[in-house]
Design brief:
- This protein is α/β, with parallel strands linked by helices.
- It starts with 6 loop residues before the first strand and ends in a 17-residue tail after the last helix.
- The strands form two sheets. The protein has a five-stranded mixed sheet with strand order 3-2-1-4-5, with helices on both faces. A five-stranded mixed sheet has the order 8-7-6-9-10, sandwiched between helices.
- Strand 7 and strand 8 form a beta hairpin.
- About 45% of the residues are buried.
- The chain has helices spanning about 45-70, 90-105, 115-120, 170-180, 185-195, 220-235, 240-270, 285-295, 315-325, and strands at about 5-10, 15-25, 25-35, 80-85, 110-115, 140-145, 150-155, 160-165, 275, 300.
Length: about 350
């Protein structure tokens, strides 16, 4: 099998974004994402609606990714797809398409762990852009709507989760707190925007006491809900009158919880090469706090481009590229997993 001109088609359909990308020899040629607006009115992703939208989007998205890459389908070396974790109905659409494409084209099939993809997004090369990937070993703080993990990355395909949430994820805490304040879904970006106008020390919220490097955010969500309930009893306009300060304070609390364990992980492992990944890594408060801590603790900090932090197929394709180099393929009997470990 040739080790040159390795061209990977990546398919991502774990939640509510249908995405396809082409990567050749580690360099991104295209990355197409079709988002689903239908979930906004429900305040969260509706699994059945998500899977139906994937079925409508998958073929045109893949077709556009191939056209934007300027290649022929016959040039594709393998197809990589998200096997999990994610919404099972959504994953089934991507998995089924990838299997069919692999079978029809006579090319290998590569399954990708969605979380591993987020980490390896740090290794996507772009034409004409200087490439400075993290050096092994490094620590990656992976924060998204469904996951909050600290990962020790020893190589492209060797990763160990050394800390993770025992209940809810940081992204979920952002969205649920935003919802009770009456902000639209997804709430994280709205909190981030409003927090810039507020005082992060105005309100104090509970911080969990979880041993080791693990996280917990369920208690914070409950504390925030009860805090608002009690204040609204006294003043029904409390949220509207204090919205920027509330957003700044809850964001400050979540960021402090995340960084407290990351600092401990760096100290315990001796690793000072630090990265972030996942949708919540786009949060400006988290990025600013990381930069401040990097200066204080002399970390070498690498922050990914915004477009590669969200769910996208480029991260699946780059993971498929490294698995292709390692001859890690899977058969047509592969089934997706709603829940799976890194």
């Amino acid at each position: 099998m040739s080790r040159e001109n390795i061209t990977i088609l990546g398919i991502e359909s774990s939640c509510d974004d249908t995405s396809a990308a082409i990567i050749r020899d580690g360099v991104i040629l295209s990355n197409v994402v079709a988002s689903q607006k239908v979930h906004e009115e429900y305040g969260g992703v509706v699994p059945e609606l998500a899977s139906r939208a994937h079925q409508q989007n998958i073929i045109p998205v893949v077709d556009l990714a191939i056209k934007n890459a300027g290649i022929a389908k016959s040039e594709i070396s393998a197809v990589a797809f998200t096997r999990g974790p994610g919404l099972l109905g959504s994953l089934l659409v991507g998995t089924s398409f990838a299997k069919g494409f692999s079978l029809a084209s006579g090319i290998p099939l590569i399954d990708v762990n969605h979380l591993q993809g987020h980490v390896l997004a740090l290794f996507i090369k772009e034409k004409g852009v200087s490439f400075h990937p993290p050096q092994f070993p490094f620590l990656c703080l992976l924060v998204s709507g469904g996951n909050s993990q600290i990962i020790l990355v020893r190589s492209h395909l060797e990763m160990e989760v050394i800390g993770q949430t025992i209940d809810d994820a940081a992204g979920e805490a952002f969205d649920k707190c935003a919802k009770v304040m009456g902000l639209p879904y997804p709430g994280g970006p709205h909190i981030d925007r409003l927090a810039k106008e507020g005082d992060p020390l105005r309100f104090e919220f509970s911080r969990p006491r979880v041993p080791g490097l693990n996280y917990s955010f369920s208690g914070l969500k409950t504390n925030f809900l009860y805090f608002l309930r009690d204040r609204i009893k006294e003043n029904e306009n409390f949220v509207e009158q204090n919205l920027p300060d509330l957003c700044a304070s809850i964001q400050h609390t979540i960021v402090e919880i995340l960084l407290s364990k990351l600092k401990r992980a760096s100290k315990e492992t001796g690793v000072k090469e630090i990265t972030i990944a996942g949708g919540v890594s786009a949060n400006s408060g988290l990025r600013d706090a990381l930069k401040t801590n990097a200066e204080k603790y002399r970390w070498k900090l690498i922050i990914p481009k915004f477009e590669f932090t969200m769910d996208n197929a480029a991260m699946i394709a780059i993971t498929g590229y490294y698995k292709y180099l390692n001859n890690e393929f899977i058969g047509q009997n592969a089934v997706p997993f709603a829940r799976t470990q890194l």
